[in-house]
Amino acid sequence: MTLSDALDDLTPAHREVLVETYFKGRTVNEAAETLGIPSGTVRSRVFYALRSMKLALEERGVTA
Amino acid sequence: MSVYGGNQGFGTGGMGMSGPMQESPVPNEHETVGAYALGILDDAEATVFEAHLAGCEWCAQQLDELAGMEPMLAALADLPGSGTPAIGESLSAKPRPRLVEKLVDEVAERRAQKRRRSFYMVAASAALIVGGPFVAVATNGGGDGGGAENRPLAASPAKEAFNGISDKITATDPTTKVTATVALQKKDWGTGMVLEAKNLKGPLKCALVAVGKNGERETLSSWSVPNWGYGIPDATTEKAKEPLYVQGGAAFQPNEIDHFEIVTFDGKRLVEVDA
Questions:
Q1: Residue A64 counted as domain residue
Q2: Can you tell me the ipTM of this complex?
Q3: Tens of pLDDT along B113-165?
Q4: CA atoms A47, A50, A52, A58: torsion sign
Q5: Does a structural domain hold residue B157?
Q6: For chain B, what is the mean pLDDT?
Q7: B2 — contact with chain A (CB < 8 Å)?
């Protein structure tokens, strides 16, 4: 299990918000505008994306 | 101010919202902690969230758990040969080859420090104040802001607390070479404690246990040691050189404690410190 696997294992929607925010250096609001979805949705997806990644890593013995 | 957007977005996550987290949906406001942990809120939102965080134990706990994800994502983004936007696009488009074996390196660390550091520093203080047992050391964690810049972010509040307590005891185990220094403070409720541990080689899960003169054992805190370890003197990265700082508390009064032990989850004693 590597980090990139953990990212790949996310649902497309979850991966997308991480890419559009963190990896592209955009804020939640900027990404929301780009994606055309409410910023609350971006925030929510970012949260669950992080939880999923953390869980996936932990299940494989990687601790953050 | 409506920066949280009311309930918008809650339940509108589409397919992305499926999964185990659905079992315990949390109000929208709290979900902001994820974006905060990554430093992707704008300043106004971050400020509003910090106000919420200061009074929300759940968010403090979540922040504590999620803070480690940011360096990991930074390591991903800093993969050699890829600019951040480029990697972003390829990540969204298709699965990537297995490129990251080493989770955190100095590049990632530098990157993490560049990003919105002030968020974490404030967040860490807030977590320290509202975090249950951490109340024990809150008064020591607030005063010293100077010199915190170069510390690994997650370790700062405990380290500051450690430095603020003068009553310390230390020991190094001759076999494991693990060094533990325990800073103690008498409290109305018992004993407040901050541990500094060095030469802890990962991967490992361990706990700090106080053993009373009456033979009772209380676990003060537990943690896992990443592969790169803590307080490794000849390590190549700053992260691995940095000792581990953890804090906790015990119901024992200080004079009721015989000694402290760092024990692994499989029962091996790494070091014993006489109180």
A1: no
A2: 0.93
A3: 444 444 444 444 444 444 444 333 333 333 344 443 343 444 467 888 888 88
A4: negative
A5: no
A6: 70
A7: no
Total domains in the fold of chain A: 1
Residue of A nearest to B92 (CA): A16
Pair B50, B115 in one domain? yes
Q: What is the CATH number of the domain that holds A8?
A: 1.10.10.10
Q: What is the CATH number of the domain that holds B259?
A: 2.60.40
CB contact under 8 Å between B92 and A15, yes or no, is yes
A47 contact residues in B (CB cutoff 8 A): 31-35
- Cβ–Cβ < 8 Å for B165, B184: yes
User: Rounded to whole angstroms, how far apart are CA atoms B239 and B248?
Assistant: 22
Asked whether residue B176 is domain-assigned, the answer is yes
Among B28, B31, B38, B40, pick the best mutation site for testing chain A contact (most A Cβ within 10 A).
B40
The span from the CA of B257 to the CA of B13, in Å, is 52
Cα B157 to Cα A17, B47, B99: the distances in Å are 30, 20, 33
- Closest Cα in chain B, distance from residue A36 (Å): 12
Of B128, B150, B185, the one marking the end of a domain is B128
Q: Is residue B141 part of a domain?
A: no
What is the tens place of the pLDDT at every residue in B158-212? 888 888 888 889 999 888 999 999 999 888 888 888 899 999 988 888 888 999 9
Q: Does B84 touch chain A (CB under 8 A)?
A: yes
Decide if B31 touches A, using CB distance below 8 A.
yes
Residue B241 is part of which domain span? 166-274
Q: Please give the residue range of the domain that contains residue A23.
A: 3-59
State how far the Cα of B170 lies from the Cα of B182, in Å rounded to an integer: 6
How many CA atoms lie within 13 Å of B182's alpha carbon, on the beta-carbon side?
29
Count structural domains, chain B: 2
Q: Which of A20, A47, A53, A54 to mutate to test the interface with B (most CBs of B within 10 A)?
A: A47
